[in-house]
Structures are given as structure tokens and as C-alpha cells.
């Protein structure tokens, strides 16, 4: 497999360790990974702000950079969902359809494409899983609580076999953190209140580390935790899956 690695702009600028962990993990899994140097943003911030027409050149740049790969993998559920669902406004050439079909979030790629859920790692911590909205309901990385059916989660599947880990159950398993991209800018008071409620659930249940498939959600929760002086860490799922191997 020839893999194109897409690293979202906020990870590139603020959390490069997440991008590095994603690259190292994919290489450990025996994949041929490439990072196109001309990649930029997926265009989600523009679209979320009501300027999707202005995002079209950004969309086209993404397609130009990634259409040659078998799969595109990214440590961001929201960006992956945006590529799959919002690139429908482009002319649906073979290249566009290929990129939309073959772009995957890291966890779903490992579970659905590589067909494995045991990465043979050790992670002796009490971990709370934040189910990011785009990943949960858009990419179907898990079963949302409003559906009366058997619950499942690809993130849980990958973590539960880690030696020493304790996955902490939450009172509200899939509540939004309130970040929502530009929502946190235009509605900061509501966003912060939602974030405080989400953080309190983790703290109340004894979580040491919060993880998620989106660093944007973790950035929001970690910022609130720091301001409130809580001893709680936010660690992206890629960093955990790339941790100590047995």
C-alpha cells in the first residue's frame, strides 16, 4: 500500500508530535508512507464559516496532492469527514472520487482496512475516551447513544487490548466537548460551558488521561483543564497507539 499522510493545519502548527506519532505508527505497521510537501488545509474552517466557494481552490489542492495514493490517512476525524462529504461540490472526476472514497481516519484505517485491533502495546493508565462528534456520527467510529442497538467503538477496540490500561466509563459517553471549530470563536461562552461539563465527567470518574481521534477537541478540553489547574492530560489516540510496544 502507498499511503498519503495528511496532517491537519492545527496539528502541524501546535501538536507536531501527533503527526510524528501517526507517521511512526503507520511505518511500524509495514506501510509505505509519504507526506506530500505541498499539502495545506482540507478547507474545513472556510466551509464552517460559510465560505465554501472560497474553499474550492483548497479542495482542489488536496485532491492534486493525494489522488495518486492507494489510501489517505489522517489523525483527524473531522478533516476526514469533511473530505468525504464536502468535496461533493467539486466536479466528480476520477481523482476526486478516488480521494473521497479512500481517505480514512487513523483508527478506522487500522480496524477496517488493515483488519487488526491488537497493536500489542502497553499503556498502564486510567483513560477516558472522548468520542468526537464528526468521528462518532459522521464516520461511524462508534455507536451514538441515541440509537437503541448494541454499542461499539473502533477506538475502544484498539485500546482495550493494551496491557495495563483501564478504560474509564463516563456518565455521558458521547457528549460534545463544545469546540466545534469556529463555533468556539463565535460562541465562546457556550463552547466553554460545554467543555467544562465534558471535562467534569472525566474528572468525576477518575480519568488520568483523555484521548480522542481529534486533537482539536483535546486542545479545547486541555485548555480548560489548565485554566482550572486540574492534573489531567490530553493525549491523542495516535500517541497512545504508538507507545511502548510489547
Automatic annotation (TrEMBL):
Residues 4-83, 127-221 form the Cysteine-rich domain. GO terms for molecular function: oxidoreductase activity. It comes from the Bacteria. Signal peptide: none annotated. Pfam families: CCG. One of its GO terms (cellular component) is cytosol. InterPro entries: Cys_rich_dom (IPR004017). This is (Fe-S)-binding protein. It comes from Mariniphaga sediminis.
